Amino acid sequence: MKGLLLLFLLLLFGGQRSSACPHLCSCDGGQVDCSSRSLTSSSLPTRFPAETTELRLHNNLLTTLPNELLEDLTSLSSVSLHGNPWVCDCGVLYLRAWLRRQPTSLTSHLGVNCSSPPSLRGRLVVYLTEEEVLESCHYWYCDLALVSQVCLFVFVVVQAGLLVALIVFLKRFKRLFKEGKRTREESFTAGEGNRENDYMATKDTSI
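Structure (tokenized):
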């Protein structure tokens, strides 16, 4: 019984969330307007009402679209994506694939141009070849690999410096230990000599 009640609540609230107008957007029937809201790829709503027919995402700061974002919008007939700084690296593959699946009557691809990298700037995302996108991914991974190598080199240098400092400290400690031991032995020997001299002096006096 409790399981059925929980399932009912999940379906109820889940349905409410799917039909609710996303934060920072305005809705009018099947029209969802999220344009000119300075939305980034991280602040973009993660879901839209299932009955959305027109989605406006133009004139924002979007660089990529999250995977599967538009897959559940089966009633969608119009999407505006122009006026965003799209980054045409690996992250654009979902947007490119989605645009290619749309019918020619749907003009969502218009104005969806690459902002970076420089070699692809101004190109329409829908017409990018897979080789071009993967090449930009290759450069991105190379940059990441270079940064990783630099960080690794700095880490090794720091570790080497700490090891050298430790060796120097241990040598200094060993030297100080030997000096302290020698000083203690000399003091002990001197003390023994003084006691022997005192004993002899006392013996002579007694005689």
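The longest helix spans residues 130-206. The CA atoms of residues 82 and 111 lie 4 Å apart.
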